[in-house]
Write a structure and sequence with these properties.
about 100 residues, about 75% helix, about 15% strand
Length: about 100
């Protein structure tokens, strides 16, 4: 269990979570980087708008990562199906060859 002191976008508070402090600090650091990038690229200074956009950007990252993972899983399933079909064809060919030879 860890405690994280959050000082960002003009607000300060502490949270306690089941995750360890290093992990939570890593998350906060990533969030701060995104919030800073938003301020630099958009010029927004309103903390609420920055927070909302940072949340959307990070959600976008997560969503794209999940889509990529699902795509890879789909390809993996298709590859497995292709391998199973190839195995069946090979077994049928072996069976036919055995019938011809005997």
């Amino acid at each position: 269990m860890g405690i994280l002191q959050i000082d960002i976008l003009g607000t300060s508070f502490a949270i306690q979570a089941k995750e360890d402090s290093i992990y939570m600090q890593t998350l906060l650091s990533h969030y701060k980087q995104v919030a800073d990038k938003i301020e630099q690229t958009t010029g927004l200074t309103d903390p609420l708008k920055q927070a909302i956009l940072a949340g959307i950007f990070i959600t976008d990252e997560l969503y794209k990562e999940k889509q990529e993972q699902n795509k890879q899983e789909t390809v993996s399933v298709q590859n497995n199906q292709d391998l199973q079909q190839a195995e069946q064809v090979a077994l049928q060919m072996i069976s036919q060859l055995n019938q011809i030879i005997t």
